[in-house]
Protein: C-4 sterol methyl oxidase, putative
Amino acid sequence: MASLYPSRTEATLKFCTLLTRGPFLCALVSHAVYPLYLKLINRLQWSDAAVFALVTSLSHSIPYVVTHSFFALCDKFGWFKRHRLPRKQAQLPSKQLIVRTLIQAAVGQLTTPVIAYLMYKHVLRSPTSQNAPMPSLTKTWAHFAGATMVNEIGFYTVHRILHEFPWLYKNIHKQHHQYIGTISIAAEYAALPEEIFAATLPTIGYMMWARVPFPIFAVWLINRLIETYESHSGYCFRDTWPARWFGLLNAERAEFHDYHHTANVGNFGTNIFLDYLLGTMTPFLESKQRAATQKNTN
Structure:
């Protein structure tokens, strides 16, 4: 079924887009918010550790509330129905599962500032100061591109290991797959080892290693959270103007990862990069081919 895979040219183009468009937009946003950030910290007069805890907490809480509220309203009032990915009744999450997810999320939100503060004080050996100047736009883009690659490789590797070893899947990753047809809050519903090694470390690993200024870290964290919330939302906004013209949404990844949950096979990465190189999205491509054939015959 190798012919189902994108051509090398198409795959290379997607890879280049992955490392340019999103990282460059994040770099622009980082430079735009930097003056506002300086005004905030000058008023607060907090320690570096406290500012890091605040930045991390707000970067987690605000996307959580805004993104999940939007998708919850879409589900409740039937907004954007034509963008809703197909769901069977058996794939819908139970109320009990949703309650457990919200409780776990509340604990996570409350502990985030504490963990961030302690990490800054006792884990980071050379932490960045809250007054660190912003690098050039080019260097800022390079940081986002580097973080993207680290996240792609880290998440794919750990995620695939969790599926390849039955004991790890049963005792760790199965919790996340209790959501067959996902909703946005399912993104962070996972066992603690998975949260650490599949989500947290791939997401913030590069930024911590590079010791980037706090605004860069905040923009990256917000971008990653919105991306993963959308990819679990059950909505695919591929043919909308923000996605089509500006690439502002994550429609392709939403469809890609949604198949991973509903079929529970393949599609281990966050994009097509490693799944293309290692041939782990064949069932997904076969499914799309069957859907296209059926559509044409009808």
The mean pLDDT is 93.
